[in-house]
Amino acid sequence: LDKLNMCMDGKHQKTEPGPEGELYKQEKKKNCFPLHSVLLDNACCTTNTSAEAHEENSYLYNFNWNHCGAMSKECKKHFIQDTCFYECSPHLGPWIQPVDQSWRKERILNVPLCNEDCHTWWEDCKNDITCKTDWHKGWDWSSGINKCPAGSKCRKWTDVYPTPKSMCEQIWSNSYLYTTYSKTSGLCMQVWFNGTNPNKKVAEYYLNNKAQQHQNFALTVLFFLAFASLSL
Ligand SMILES: Nc1nc(=O)c2nc(CNc3ccc(C(=O)N[C@@H](CCC(=O)O)C(=O)O)cc3)cnc2[nH]1
From the CA of 136, how far away is ligand 1's center (Å)? Predict the structure, then answer.
């Protein structure tokens, strides 16, 4: 299992990342990636998923962005980009976790999101309206698309999410972890980028760092046992 190049077992992701050459040829407007992006070479989404990410109430999740009236264009573009990131990124391995849900077997948890990506998302949505904090659960699906559940109220974005951190972490039940790292740090994942995918190096860093932590822990236990047996 190559954690630096894999796809989660979600609803629409491919089993393995690979090229989506069609995207090169079609030069579609509704495309997850700017032209010449390296992601085209290696994506977890199909061409169809990439295009569908731009549709209203898309078949991906039948998700209705306009559940409290029309979502603004500026805000919506961040949700489209988030969908692209979630469906297409082949470098989420370090944060993929098994999950017991009807619609997916794996999820992402605590992906360290670059500060700018979180802040611009929140800034562009802060005049919008929503009725829920966690958009993964608790909707009224009786009409086929999600509507605000009985008893909930459409409230100002800033009342539901007082800070960028609260939005980025809570909206997809901790898919993202808020960080103060900037896009140039190499320590956070970028939802928005042009050209070469910067996220592979970040995933590599976290994977190695985690391995390091495990090693440190193992060494600590080893030394503890050594000293404990000496003092007996
Ligand atoms: N970054 C990111 N992380 C994600 O996990 C993510 N997930 C989605 C998928 N969104 C959704 C939202 C609601 C339901 C849904 O059917 N909710 C039901 C509960 C279903 C269940 O858990 O069994 C509900 O009660 O509303 C499915 C997928 C889209 N973008 C994402 N973007």
Answer: 4
Length of the chain: 232
Of ligand 1's listed atoms, the one at least distance from the Cα of 102 is 23
Q: What distance in Å separates the CA atoms of residue 147 and residue 46, rounded to the nearest whole number? A: 28
CA of 61 to the centre of ligand 1 (A): 7
Residues 6+ apart with CB under 8 A from 190: 114, 117, 183, 198, 199, 202
Residue 212 CA, ligand 1 centroid: distance in Å: 33
> Rounded CA gap, 168 and 135, in Å?
11
CA distance 109 to 105: 13
Residue 52's nearest CA partner among 40, 44, 60 is 60
pLDDT tens-digit readout, 52-82:
999 999 999 999 999 999 999 999 999 999 9
Which atom in ligand 1 lies closest to the alpha carbon of residue 83? Answer: 30
114-166, pLDDT tens digit by residue? 999 999 999 999 999 999 999 999 999 999 999 999 999 999 999 999 999 99
* Residue pair 12/51 in contact by the 8 Å Cβ criterion: no
List beta partners, residue 98: 106
Say yes or no to pLDDT of 35 above 70.
no
Distance of alpha carbon 7 from alpha carbon 27, whole angstroms: 24
